[in-house]
Design goal:
There is one protein chain. The protein is an alpha/beta fold. The protein has two domains: 136 residues, Leucine Dehydrogenase, chain A, domain 1 (Rossmann fold, 3-Layer(aba) Sandwich), CATH 3.40.50.10860; 138 residues, 3-Layer(aba) Sandwich (Rossmann fold), CATH 3.40.50. Helix content is 39%, strand content 19%. It is built from twelve helices and twelve strands. Strand 1, helix 1 and strand 2 form a beta-alpha-beta unit. Helix 5 packs across helix 11. Bound molecules: NADP nicotinamide-adenine-dinucleotide phosphate. The site of NADP nicotinamide-adenine-dinucleotide phosphate has 23 residues, from helix 7 and helix 11. This is Shikimate dehydrogenase (NADP(+)). Keywords: Amino-acid biosynthesis, Aromatic amino acid biosynthesis, NADP, Oxidoreductase.
Length: 288
């Protein structure tokens, strides 16, 4: 009699070599002593539909979806009797896939919840009650997820500034009465009222220019978050440290967004611990 096969999950993207998700899930599998695997699979766009239709019959219970496939997987799951979570529907993007019985799939998006969990971890829960205005810099995929999650947390005023203002305007459809769009040059007034400022642009990432923003107008209670996690301390976070403000780095979002997928595939809710964080930071440091 053959052994029951170990649970298998994946991350797909194109390219995918840079993904740190295998390290995170591999860490949890080892920590919990589970006999599963989590592998990187490079899926070219023209092969995506075939991969999505066939992964469950190849023994995978699900996986993560990353650039450039999040929107395409959403489109594929929009027909054929599949399930999409409210978050995935709102964003039009899937980052977590779970195989269901009878060939059906469930698509979910955990990026926004991962971000707010990272803020909870860094500063303690309840920050949303005193945040007042939140400023979101950028209007790409990550910004959409974060704006959605901030609305879910009850933030009453979200000010979005983006290089391409039309993309920021597009975010207003989530809640036109709670979301404002301002030019980057006009941030001084909202900054005076902001309890949270989040960078979701690529600025500050290794190899990219720094974000050019004076934090002098932020109140002392403000939290500054940067979802860029290479380097661990971006120029924005260094400026926030110099002002003595509370800070949230991007690694926390990466770790927390992974939790629901692991739980769905392997049946155990994993913890985001200082040891996990140190392991991923060491890997980032080695690659920097
Ligand atoms: N920590 C995490 O778990 C996590 C998760 C997701 C993403 N991220 C990071 O978040 C960043 C954004 O990801 P994304 O998926 O949202 O990317 P995206 O959809 O491509 O959006 C990129 C954003 O950056 C802005 N931008 C790019 N270059 C700029 C420049 N030179 N000046 C001003 N703005 C610029 C874009 O503005 P335009 O609209 O004008 O082009 C857009 O708002 C990336 O660094 C990514 O690694 C981190």
């Amino acid at each position: 009699m053959s052994e029951p096969s170990a649970t298998k999950a994946f991350v797909i993207g194109h390219p995918i070599a840079h993904s740190r998700s295998p390290l995170i899930h591999g860490y949890w599998l080892a920590e919990l002593g589970l006999p599963g695997s989590y592998e990187r699979i490079d899926v070219a766009p023209e092969m995506l539909a075939e991969f999505i239709a066939g992964f469950a019959s190849r023994g995978f219970v699900g996986g993560n979806v990353t650039v450039p496939h999040k929107e395409a997987v959403f489109a594929l799951l929009s027909t054929g009797g599949h399930e999409l979570s409210d978050e995935a529907r709102r964003l039009g993007a899937v980052n977590t896939l779970v195989a269901l019985p009878e060939g059906r799939l469930r698509g979910h998006n955990t990026d926004g919840a991962g971000f707010v969990a990272s803020v909870d971890e860094a500063v303690g829960s309840g920050w949303e009650n005193e945040a007042g205005t939140a400023i979101v810099l950028g209007a790409g995929g990550a910004a959409r997820a974060i704006v959605g999650a901030l609305l879910d947390r009850g933030l009453r005023r979200i000010v979005v500034a983006n290089r391409t203002p039309a993309k920021a305007e597009g975010l207003r459809r989530f809640a036109p009465e709670r979301i404002e769009v301002v030019a980057s040059a006009d941030l001084a007034a909202p900054m005076r009222e902001a309890g949270l400022l989040v960078n979701t642009t690529t600025l500050g990432m290794k190899g990219q220019p720094a974000l050019d923003l004076d934090l002098a107008d932020l109140p002392e209670r403000a939290i500054v978050a940067d979802i860029v996690y290479v380097p661990a301390e971006t120029p924005l976070l260094a400026a926030a440290r110099a002002r003595g403000l509370r800070r949230v780095g991007g690694l926390g979002m990466l770790l927390h967004q992974a939790v629901p997928g692991f739980e769905a595939w392997f049946g155990h809710r994993p913890a985001v611990t200082p040891a996990l964080r140190a392991a991923i930071e060491a890997d980032i440091g080695a690659g920097a």
